[in-house]
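Reply to dn_fold:

You asked what the input looked like. This is it:
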Amino acid sequence: MSAPVLDVANLRVTFPTHHGDVDVVRGVSFTVGRERLGIVGESGSGKSLTGRSILRLVPPPGRVSADKLSFMGQDLLKLSETEMPNIRGKRISMVLQDPKFSLNPVMKVGHQIEESYRRHVANNRRQARESAIEALKAVKIRDPETVYHLYPHQLSGGMGQRVMIAMMLIPEPQLLIADEPTSALDMTVQLQVLAILDDLVRERGMSLILISHDLGMVSAFCDRVLIMYAGKVIETVKASDLDKAQHPYARGLMASVPRLGDDRAELPVLQRDAGWAK
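and this is what came back:
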């Protein structure tokens, strides 16, 4: 069996408070191979912080610690801030959930994609432009030459998300972290964006971490799923078996999903147990 692309053991994200340090990600452990790994849980469960901590993007005064945080055999916690840019964006990329807040509003999107190429691949303007156009084609944008010259406010939500994916993929990373990449999109556009991600992951042999609230989407799209609650991973299951998860919290999440033809008068309320958070 080949070594994992990412190996995480006892990951913690800690913030100081007036009452002492508080761990908001608490002892999370998992590995990622050449696969699509989903991370699910309610808001505040630590999903996004787990993703950001891999790239050491947790802002001060937050602290990231782990027994192991290894990417392709390299210890990410031992890299200096001057060394991290060789990993961040180049070998591990992250797609954030809302392009309105992630794209520079006063730069044409083509120039922003070029910037990623020139920073991580080669500082050649002509090659950067050609690669930006090819990246827009790769995410199924029909008229890449026109979109290249648009500003972010001129893009629809789905097109903006495709531009973000193109920008993150242009250095051809080995691992892509997608944090709620379809949350602001309607169902039809969600499926299109997921199909693009699926094609790119398969064609390029990348690993994918998909962070989402959408249990149905994750179960259909991913290979494995981590279920998080209160900063901890409480269960790991095959994505196809998500509806068979055993932990009471996981069963409660699945029961709260509305379904077509559902004749329940009310969706069930998740009953929490204080012991889950210990």
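The first strand starts at residue 6 and ends at 17.
Hope that clears it up.
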